[in-house]
Specification:
single chain, mainly alpha, 0% strand, rod-shaped
């Protein structure tokens, strides 16, 4: 803001006219100074109001951005969890079927081994019975023909 003295010097320099403080035109200078001061005050108030509005908008945008980021992260976590769960379930089902096949094959092998053992035991039992019969017949024959 220009003071009266600076305005008087500027007028003298630019226009070549020397004015003093009592010149009637100085009323306009005083009015301009008052108007300029009022404008500066009004501009400062508007600038402060604009700053407050910008701060409020910035805070709102930050809250909205945080909310959206949280939604995106939550959705990503849910999708990832679902994918992992599906993969685990699929893997578990496959492993369960593989284990079941191995157990069934092992049981079949045991059954075959047991059946072979039974057949061998039956053969041995029949041989023992036949041997016992032959011994009994031999003993009876010996006792009868003696």
């Amino acid at each position: 803001m220009l003071s009266k003295d600076k305005m008087l010097l500027a007028i003298a320099k630019e226009n070549g006219i020397r004015l003093n403080d009592n010149d009637p035109i100085m009323v306009l200078v005083t009015m301009l100074i008052i108007f300029q001061e009022q404008q500066e005050i009004a501009q400062a108030e508007l600038l402060q109001q604009y700053h407050s509005e910008l701060s409020e908008l910035s805070n709102k945008w930050e809250a909205d951005a945080n909310s959206k980021a949280k939604q995106i992260i939550d959705s990503s976590i849910k999708a990832g969890t679902k994918t992992i769960t599906n993969a685990i379930e699929s893997s578990t089902t496959a492993n369960k079927a593989a284990i079941k096949d191995v157990i069934e094959q092992t049981l079949e092998t045991y059954r075959e081994t047991i059946d072979k053992g039974r057949n061998q035991n039956n053969t041995v039992a029949i041989a023992n019975i036949a041997s016992s019969l032959m011994l009994t017949i031999s003993v009876l024959t010996f006792l009868l023909f003696q």
